[in-house]
Specification:
InterPro entries: Class_I_gatase-like (IPR029062), GATASE (IPR017926)
Radius of gyration: 18 Å
Pfam families: GATase
Order of helices and strands: EHEHEHEHEEHEEEHHHHH
Number of domains: 1
Strand content: 15-25%
CATH architecture: 3-Layer(aba) Sandwich
CATH superfamily: Class I glutamine amidotransferase (GATase) domain
Shape: globular
Number of helices: 10
Oligomer: single chain
Largest sheet: 9 strands, mixed
Number of strands: 9
Protein name: Glutamine amidotransferase domain-containing protein
Length: 278
C-alpha cells in the first residue's frame, strides 16, 4: 500500500494578503500530483485563529513567512506556536517516526529566538528585492541546494535579521549554518545568516524559496504596490527587480529546487521509516 503524505501549511501572515501562501499551496499540490505520491495538505491560520496542527495527524510541515517583529510579544498564538516547535523537536529526539519541518523568514526568526540558537536584531534598513544567497562550506554539501549555483538568487523581504549563531548549540542538534547574505564592504556589520539546518528533519531559511516569477510579477505590477516600492526604494530598483523576475536562472530555479527537494526527501524518509516498522 502506498504512503499517503500528510502536509500541514502554517500560515503566519496574520491575515495580510501575500503571494507566499499561494506558492506554498501550489508547491505542496504539485508534489502530491506527481506519480507515486498521494496525500493531502491542510492550512492552519496561526496568528489570527491560533490554529496549530496536531503532530499525530501530519508528517510534513511548511511554516510561512509573515509581517511584523519576530521578537516575543507575549501573544497567545506565540505560546501555542513555540509549544508546537518544542513538541516537534522532542518528538524527533524520542520517536522513530520523524516529523519534517521547513521554516520560512518570520518562522525561521521565531525558531532562532525561541531555541536561543542565534540573535535576531532589527536591520538599519529594509532588505527588499532579489538578492544573491551565498552558501557556506556546509551549504556547498547541503542536499536541498543540489542544482543551485553559489551564489543562487532568492526573494528577500525583511526588517529583521538572524546574526551571531551559537555554533555549539547547533552542534548539539547536528545543525549547520548553510548560507549567509552578500558581503556589504561599506557596512561594518556581521553578514546575516540566511539558512540553517537545525537537525536532520528541521530546516529554515531567511529568504523566500517559495516565490515564483508569475505571482511576483503580478503582485509588483499592481499600481499600489508599484508606487509603494518606487517611493521607498526608487524606480531603478523596481525595474531591476522586474528584470530579474523573468530570469529563469534566478528565483524560478530556487522555487523549483529547495522546497521540492525538501518534500521529496521527507517523503523518502517517511517511506524508509514505514519499511523499518514492518
Amino acid at each position: 500500500m502506498s504512503t499517503k503524505y500528510r502536509i500541514a501549511i502554517l500560515d503566519m501572515n496574520a491575515g495580510e494578503p501575500n503571494e507566499g501562501m499561494r506558492c506554498l499551496k501550489m508547491l505542496a499540490g504539485e508534489f502530491l500530483e506527481q506519480e507515486g505520491y498521494e496525500g493531502h495538505y491542510d492550512v492552519f491560520e496561526v496568528r489570527i485563529n491560533g490554529e496549530i496542527p496536531l503532530l499525530e495527524e501530519y508528517d510534513i510541515y511548511l511554516s510561512s513567512g509573515g509581517p511584523g517583529s519576530p521578537l516575543v510579544s507575549g501573544e497567545e498564538w506565540e505560546y501555542k506556536y513555540f509549544g508546537f516547535l518544542d513538541a516537534l523537536l522532542l518528538h524527533n529526539l524520542s520517536k522513530p517516526d520523524k516529523k519534517h519541518l521547513f521554516l520560512i523568514c518570520h518562522s525561521f526568526q521565531l525558531a532562532c529566538v525561541h531555541w536561543d540558537l542565534a540573535k535576531v536584531t532589527k536591520r538599519r534598513t529594509t532588505s527588499f528585492g532579489i538578492y544573491p544567497i551565498f552558501k557556506t562550506n556546509s551549504g556547498e554539501h547541503e542536499i536541498l541546494f543540489e542544482g543551485l549555483a553559489n551564489p543562487f538568487f532568492a526573494v528577500d523581504s525583511r526588517d529583521y535579521q538572524v546574526v551571531g549563531p551559537s555554533e555549539w548549540k547547533l552542534d548539539t542538534l547536528d545543525g549547520k549554518v548553510l548560507c549567509r547574505e552578500k558581503v556589504r564592504s561599506h557596512v561594518p556589520l556581521e553578514r546575516a545568516v540566511m539558512a540553517i539546518r537545525y537537525s536532520r528533519e528541521i530546516f529554515g531559511v531567511q529568504f523566500h524559496p517559495e516565490a515564483d516569477s508569475e505571482g511576483m510579477l503580478r503582485h509588483f505590477k499592481k499600481e499600489e504596490k508599484r508606487n509603494k516600492i518606487i517611493k521607498k526604494f526608487g524606480k531603478l530598483k523596481y525595474l531591476n527587480m522586474l528584470e530579474q523576475l523573468v530570469d529563469d536562472e534566478k528565483i524560478m530555479r530556487t522555487n523549483q529546487t529547495i522546497i521540492p527537494n525538501f518534500l521529496r526527501l521527507a517523503a523518502e524518509s517517511i517511506d524508509a521509516q514505514k519499511l523499518q516498522s514492518v
